[in-house]
């Protein structure tokens, strides 16, 4: 499956575009690629693409989630959810809306009315910050979220217990009204949600006092979620059923958790690999030594510095990196050895170095490899 294009690119607008600009851009493209009027062989696919982009960017809630999470923020929306709050009437005045929705893949099973059946609740989004050490081992985190839950008094019916809503007289309970108009394409039927009942087909005459006729109440909830070992910065987790309530039991949306891993002062991370810089003295580099290297789990490993080690030499410590969330294998720890030259020398040290220089003839061995070349060598070794 081809990767989805950025919605702003699809409509040809900037990310800061206002509602008017987005609507105009969509109208121009929709008229161009509407399958009923376009000769383009790909018109249907292009029409679906621009319509989906408009459905997201014209809705403030969806647009905010898209701007923050990209296409992943739309994962919780079904096809029906995507177009639920979109009003195509002013753009497709005179077209049969049923045919348009057929093009979106809903067929006859979708209508913006009370007859479409119980609706799934929307997903909610939150962020959790963990340290590199917590990401290494995995951790349970408590988070606080605000969710819409079915009203405990009316159980989502919106009416006071013991009372029943009335059938909307404007749409006769269908949740939609139809209007026939004449266009350049002939006589077309325009179907729109009933404004009187909001597309539900019912009028609440005695609203529930607990939820004020909304059917849902806002609640604060504390959850404990399990952060798996190896989680990386920018990863997202889906917690099923912990989103906003739908129109009935068992129709909750999901909770989407975006993970932020704090910057670590000791290690740099790239995927499952870790990088660490260890400073050694000129003497250690020249004569060789044994040195201790910290690991992300709090332990230390002893490694050998071979005599004649050059500054920038990279040593690979296998399986001392981060776990991989997919296959549970661990990455490597790459240690860069940096030779530190003393800035101040005593007279005795200077004499000894001068003697060393005289003996060695100030011989310099050229070393041309850069840091990334050394890392590659370490990876391939």
Which range does the strand content fall in? 25-35%
Report mean pLDDT, rounded to a whole number.
82
Rg from alpha-carbon coordinates = 32 Å
Major sheet: arrangement of strands: 10-11-15-14
Structure, described:
- Helix 2 (19-33) runs antiparallel to helix 3.
- Strand 12 and strand 13 form a beta hairpin.
- This protein has a four-stranded mixed beta sheet. A three-stranded mixed beta sheet has the order 1-9-8.
- By secondary structure, it is an alpha+beta fold.
- The longest helix is centred in the first third of the chain and has 15 residues, at 19-33.
- It is built from ten helices and 15 strands.
- The model is unreliable at 94-116 (pLDDT under 50).
Index terms:
single chain, 381 residues, alpha+beta, four-stranded mixed beta sheet, three-stranded mixed beta sheet, 10 helices, 15 strands
Summarize the SSE layout with pairings.
Blueprint: H1 7-11, H2 19-33, H3 43-57, H4 60-69, H5 79-82, H6 97-103, E1 124-130, H7 132-137, E2 139-150, E3 166-167, E4 176-183, E5 186-193, E6 202-203, E7 216-227, E8 236-239, E9 255-261, E10 268-270, E11 273-281, H8 282-287, E12 289-294, E13 300-305, E14 313-317, E15 333-340, H9 347-360, H10 371-380
Parallel strand pairs: 1-9, 11-15
Antiparallel strand pairs: 2-7, 3-6, 4-5, 8-9, 10-11, 12-13, 14-15
Helix pairs in contact: 2-3
């Amino acid at each position: 499956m081809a990767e989805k294009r950025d919605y702003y690119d699809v409509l040809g607008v900037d990310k800061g575009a206002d509602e008017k600009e987005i609507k105009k851009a969509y109208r121009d493209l929709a008229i161009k690629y509407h399958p009923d009027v376009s000769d383009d062989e790909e018109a249907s696919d292009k029409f679906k693409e621009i319509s989906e982009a408009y459905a997201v960017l014209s809705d403030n809630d969806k647009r905010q989630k898209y701007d923050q999470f990209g296409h992943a923020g739309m994962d919780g929306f079904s096809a029906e959810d995507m177009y639920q709050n979109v009003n195509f009437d002013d753009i497709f005045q005179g077209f049969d809306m049923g045919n348009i929705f057929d093009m979106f893949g809903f067929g006859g099973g979708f209508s913006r009315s009370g007859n479409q059946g119980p609706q799934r609740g929307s997903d909610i989004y939150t962020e959790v910050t963990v340290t590199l050490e917590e990401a290494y081992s995995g951790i349970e985190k408590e988070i606080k979220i605000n969710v819409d839950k079915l009203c405990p008094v009316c159980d989502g019916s919106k009416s006071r217990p013991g009372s029943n809503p009335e059938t909307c007289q404007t749409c006769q309970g269908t949740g939609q009204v139809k209007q026939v108009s004449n266009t350049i394409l002939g006589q077309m039927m325009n179907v729109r949600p009933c404004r009187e009942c909001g597309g539900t087909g019912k009028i609440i005459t005695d609203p529930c006092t607990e939820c004020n006729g909304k059917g849902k109440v806002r609640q604060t909830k504390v959850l404990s979620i399990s952060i798996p070992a190896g989680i990386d910065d920018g990863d997202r987790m889906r917690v099923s059923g912990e989103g906003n309530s739908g129109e009935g039991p068992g129709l909750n949306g999901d909770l989407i958790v975006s993970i932020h891993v704090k910057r670590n002062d000791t290690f740099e991370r790239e995927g499952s690999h870790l990088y660490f810089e260890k400073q050694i003295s000129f003497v250690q580099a020249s004569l060789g030594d044994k040195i201790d290297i910290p690991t992300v789990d709090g332990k230390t490993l002893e490694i050998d510095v071979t005599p004649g080690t050059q500054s920038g030499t990279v040593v690979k410590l296998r399986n001392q990196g981060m776990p991989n969330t997919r296959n549970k294998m661990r990455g490597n720890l790459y240690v860069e050895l940096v030779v530190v030259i003393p800035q101040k020398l005593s007279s005795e040290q200077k004499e000894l170095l001068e003697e060393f220089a005289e003996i060695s003839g100030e011989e310099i061995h050229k070393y041309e490899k850069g840091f990334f070349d050394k890392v590659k060598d370490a990876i391939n070794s």
